[in-house]
Design brief:
Chain lengths: 211, 467
């Protein structure tokens, strides 16, 4: 998982409530055996017409928003299914931070697990940020997780709240696996001791399986 | 030192680190993978730029959605083919030991592991499949895990786990002819229910267990999961050692003797504490058959379909009524004599050589009823070969069965082997859920001998009348 400390990037807005996981990535793309490469399906029904061509008028199809890493939206972002495909699709598209007045619970958790920072701010502030995103090449926002503050294009700073443990994991770029890897010494120790105590313990050899 | 159970010993010997909230970082000795639950895990590793911690602790095999027809034909179903190709690519990229589809050693992951000696006593064994509990028959702590955990084990060789409670099921008495391990475990599930083992690891103990061969013990542990248990385990003994001796990945010579000394120390100590104890006597046990859509809905073949009206709980009553509708059965009807359309002998519960011998014993010189579709699917290529060398394939084919290549097949109908809606099957598999053997299919779980008897008669019947 990538670390998240401070990010200055183009922000795009989808100023709607209840953007569900089906909107983020339609169910028909879930049969995949992958979790990378889902970015091209993100917001599919908005991004493409029936013939599969990009809709020029959709914000994420226009410059500079194609490169947006921050997304501003409204209440209950990410509602719907529990699958992790929604954050996978967002991340693969390039989104690292979503700001909204509220999030669906499961999406909120899944976002952290995948290195996306979801920030809850009041509707009023979100509306102001939506205005900021209309500034084209100047629609750049800074999200500073270390100091827990956002800097608007005009330099104004806005503070945000976040669970301390989650903040820590994001700052260090640790998912569950990353967390366990902190104990790599204990794991190696265990293996060493076992080799001493049970030298007969067999390994699985590829050649033996193919023979 | 405090007296400990088999589970306690397996647990203690694998704790890498005790974490503050009661969770432990548990070391995993063996990680078996197949084509369905592994692709996203590999992809996760790739995305994070991680490697597999110990490829030499892994074994990959293709089983869930392979066709059981001619292995030389291309796989028609696009998604299955894709999953298989992806696994082949992944094992190459990450250096995971792999049994190719065309190898005679390919088979159902829970049959292959023990067969190769990859499953040994005293281990922790995981696989992205709930019936991993099968390997507990060797005195190993074995359980199924989800895709995100598959990735966790790949990357760290550990899992975050909380200890389970100890449940002892003591099985005593004398099994009557025609009654097998499958009947025992069905009866156990019928008695304690599908939630009866929740939070527990079940240790099967007692003279009946000691007298079972490894195939029978695997059948017991395989279905422990259907009683809601996290795992099923049986202490290793001479029967176990005899089975693992000489297998490709089993220790050899002096190493083996040393291993046996250790394995012998695993059995539960005298006076060890169990959170719960259940006594089962098999003296009067009869062949069992399920009538509903959950493995706990089970009765003796001599029994009658229970009447939901007798249930006090309203929601239970509704549920069981719905089951009767789905299964097209009437309350009070004797289960024997129920006409069936198909018989499936296979799955990780009952697809070992012993299972085919038991079925062949009944089928020998007989013909299955005209209207029956009989499907015999060995658990591995080696089981198939062994059966053929004993002439069992001929008995099956002469009786009218189709004799197939190995795989999960109609246990879960992910490949082309499936029932038509409304069709009824006597099956040696482990789950009788709605639609498990194809949309609208009806499943009756039975032992291999009972399945063979049903095939001959064309209806559910008491195998004891044929022996
Ligand atoms: S045979 Fe059935 S239960 Fe066993 S691993 Fe295959 S699908 Fe799962």
């Amino acid at each position: 998982m990538r670390k998240f400390d401070s990010l200055t990037a183009i922000a795009a807005s989808l100023p709607e409530e209840n953007i569900d996981t089906d909107k983020i990535i339609p169910a028909r793309f879930l049969k995949t055996i992958k979790r990378s490469g889902l970015g091209k399906f993100a917001f599919y029904s908005w991004r493409y017409d029936d013939a599969g061509n990009e809709r020029k008028d959709f914000v994420l199809n226009r410059e500079p928003y194609r490169k947006a890493e921050i997304l501003i939206s409204y209440e209950n972002f990410g509602c719907g299914s529990s699958r992790e495909h929604a954050p996978w699709a967002l991340l693969d598209f390039g989104i690292r931070c979503v700001i909204a007045p509220s999030f669906a619970d499961i999406f909120y958790n899944n976002a952290f697990k995948n290195g996306i920072l979801p920030i809850k701010l009041s509707r009023e502030i979100c509306e102001q940020l939506v205005e900021d995103t209309k500034m084209g090449a100047n629609a750049r926002i800074t999200v500073d997780l270390v100091h827990q503050e956002i800097t608007r294009p005009d330099g104004e700073k806005i503070e945000f709240e976040i669970d301390l443990l989650r903040r820590q994991l994001l700052l260090e770029g640790l998912d569950d696996i990353g967390q366990t890897m902190q104990y790599v010494h204990s794991i190696e120790n265990f293996e060493k001791k076992r080799k001493e105590k049970q030298p007969w313990f067999p390994e699985i050899k590829i050649e033996k399986l193919l023979s | 030192m405090k007296a400990r159970t088999l589970f306690d010993k397996l647990w203690d010997s694998h704790v890498v680190k005790q974490l503050p909230n009661g969770t432990a970082l548990l070391y995993i000795d063996r990680h078996l993978i197949h084509e369905v639950t592994s692709p996203q895990a590999f992809d996760g590793l790739r995305l994070a730029g991680r490697k597999i911690h110990s490829p030499e602790a892994m074994m990959a095999v293709i089983d869930h959605n392979v066709p059981t027809t001619d292995r030389n034909q291309p796989i028609e179903e696009g998604e299955s083919r894709h999953q298989i190709e992806v696994l082949e690519k992944n094992v190459k990229e990450f250096g995971v030991p792999f049994i190719p589809l065309k190898s005679e050693r390919q088979g159902i992951v829970h049959v292959v592991g023990p067969e190769e000696g990859i499953t040994l006593p005293g281990m922790t064994i995981v696989c992205g499949d709930s019936h991993t509990s099968t390997h507990g028959a060797f005195g190993s702590l074995a359980f199924g895990i989800g895709t995100s955990e598959v990735e966790h084990v790949m990357a760290t060789q550990t899992l975050l786990q909380k200890p389970a409670k100890n449940l002892k099921i003591n099985i005593e008495g004398n099994l009557k002819p025609g009654v097998s391990a499958k009947d025992i475990i069905l009866a156990v599930i019928g008695k304690i229910g599908t939630a009866g083992g929740t939070e527990y690891v079940i240790e099967f103990i007692g003279s009946v267990v000691r007298n079972l061969d490894m195939a029978g013990r695997m059948t017991l542990c395989n279905m422990a999961i259907e009683a809601g248990a996290r795992a099923g385990i049986i202490a290793p003994d001479e029967v176990t050692f005899e089975y693992v001796k000489g297998r490709p990945f089993s220790p050899k010579g002096k190493d083996f003797d040393e291993a046996v000394v250790y394995w012998k120390s695993l059995a539960s100590d005298e006076g060890a504490y169990y959170d719960k104890i259940i006594e089962i006597n098999v003296n009067n046990l009869e062949p069992m058959v399920t009538w509903g859509t959950s493995p706990e809905d089970v009765i003796s073949i001599q029994g009658k379909v229970p009447d939901p009206e007798n249930l006090k709980d309203e929601s239970q009553r509704k549920r069981k009524k719905r089951m009767l509708d789905y299964m097209d059965l009437k309350a009070g009807q004797p289960i024997a004599g129920t006409k069936i359309d198909a018989v499936f002998i296979g799955s990780c519960t009952n697809s070992r050589i012993e299972d085919f011998r038991a079925a062949a014993h009944i089928l020998k010189g007989q013909k299955i009823a005209d209207h029956i579709w009989g499907l015999a699917v060995p658990g591995s290529g080696l089981v198939k070969k062994q059966a053929e060398s004993e002439g069992l394939d001929k008995i099956f084919k002469d009786a009218g069965f189709e004799w197939r290549e190995s795989g999960c097949s109609m246990c879960l109908a992910m490949n082309p082997d499936r029932l038509e809606p409304g069709q009824r099957c006597a099956s040696t598999s482990n789950r009788n859920f709605e639609g498990r053997q194809g949309p609208g299919s009806r499943t009756h779980l039975v032992s291999p001998a009972m399945a063979a008897a049903a095939a001959i008669k064309g209806e559910l019947t008491d195998v004891r009348e044929m022996i």
